[in-house]
Amino acid sequence: MVFDVDELAAHAVPSSCWSPCKAKVYDITSFLQDHPGGDDIILKYAGQDVETVMKDKTEDEHSDSAYDMLDEYAIGRLGCTENIARDDWEAEDDFDSDATDPVEDLKKRRFMDLQLATADANSSKAYHLRQVNQPRHLTDSARLFGSDYLEVSTKSKWYVVPLFWLPIAFYLFLQSALQFTTPLPLFMVDPTLPSSGLANLSADSLFKTLNCFFIGNFIWTLFLFHVDYYLSDKPIFLLLHFLLHGEHHYVPMDRLRLIFPLPVVWHNIGRVYILLHHTQLPAYLKEMKKYHLAHHYKNFDLGFGVMSKIWDVIFDTVLPV
């Protein structure tokens, strides 16, 4: 298990005492009462790297057997604390991120093999989120699956999204509007929309349908803004988080993975992601492009807006750029 350095602060109490040493993390809670020097000295340095302390002759230099005993309490290792995203990042019109060396990245961060996107080891939720939100740049797309069929299903050209989903979205919108006018049979019974109903759509039914759309959009946006906070720390959920959206943060300039995989689910602003990342834009959208890139390269906890900052204003997550 790979842990993030920020997690250690939550384990600096008698009931949960962790300490790193030589990049390994140890849970020494059960050893507190047995420590020959008393538990006070351990708690004094709880959550901090104790390598220097254990070698300090003025404190109490530890023997080799002490290090052997310490290994019995190892629960994982400390992950890389260096951030790629930084607070002083500024977007430029011709912005292009530096290329990432996949071999060095894996060796240094021990998180993901960018040549075959598989985890090197299980990681804690905190370390997972830290690494997922540190953007890398590859000349080619990272490979997610060994199977060619599964692999191709994770990539989408920008035009595939509107071609596939706009007709479906339009059909469902009309079906919803008709439901407010007259009851319809189940889709499996009769998927066709009655032409008489379409001709008699009322303003009231369209208004109700639009209300449902905006309520759904609000719920979806609320979920996106807080998904990291409520994300489970179980490996299966961390994997799903990476596949559905984390990969886009991990390699944000990958032209073929700016949206959710088409066979899985559609990101309703996927085509906008394409625009903001890779095309020449009018002045307003150019500013929104800088704003969105700052979400990736400056502070992933703020600046969620893509086409507008309205939700960031509502949820108090506006990112100064």
UniProtKB/TrEMBL annotation:
One of its GO terms (biological process) is fatty acid biosynthetic process. It is a multi-pass membrane protein. GO terms for molecular function: fatty acid 2-hydroxylase activity; heme binding; iron ion binding. Ceramide hydroxylase involved in the hydroxylation of sphingolipid-associated very long chain fatty acids. The chain crosses the membrane at residues 158-178, 213-231. Belongs to the sterol desaturase family. SCS7 subfamily. Its cofactor is Fe cation; Zn(2+). This is Ceramide very long chain fatty acid hydroxylase. Pfam families: Cyt-b5. Residues 1-79 form the Cytochrome b5 heme-binding domain. It is an enzyme of class 1 (oxidoreductase). GO terms for cellular component: endoplasmic reticulum membrane. It is found in: Endoplasmic reticulum membrane. Its EC number is 1.-.-.-. Heme binds at H35, H62. Binds 2 Zn(2+) ions per subunit that likely form a catalytic dimetal center.
